[in-house]
């Protein structure tokens, strides 16, 4: 079952989770993100979802936003051992040391990439379009905790890879129309 079919089946989830997924599908999934901090936030959520459900990430998204200083790349890049301990004790997020350390390392890498590309979005745009295997190789070279599924979902969810929506989905048409206007 595609994500589009899943979110359009109200019997697939309880009503609160259905609303979470429906809102994400209709207004965020596959939509380009212009702001670096929001792109970082999406990657952070994708990394933390590994081995868990996307429903959990949607439920805890605001907890992550708060715990990671609004997904501020600069603030996360400057995190100290005390911040790691704070995050490891935050029951509102996923308390996994490898994922926390990856977020900090990845923020530091993004800061470095911005020196050459002006922004992280600039770095992503400079490499677009690549195939999924090429993207995965590039991410593995530059970031931590970025396997094929994480990279693929991050790039698909932010519009860098096709396939977020099936062709018969109204959101597919909406995204295509917006892309054609550019």
From TrEMBL:
Pfam families (UniProt xref): Adenine_glyco
Signal peptide start and end residues: none
Binding site for Zn(2+): 4, 25
Gene Ontology biological process terms from the UniProt entry: base-excision repair
Keywords annotated in UniProt: Metal-binding, Zinc
GO MF entry, a single one: DNA-3-methyladenine glycosylase activity
UniProt-listed InterPro entries: Adenine_glyco, DNA-3mA_glycosylase, DNA_glycosylase
Record protein name field: DNA-3-methyladenine glycosylase I
Native source organism of the sequence: Arundinibacter roseus
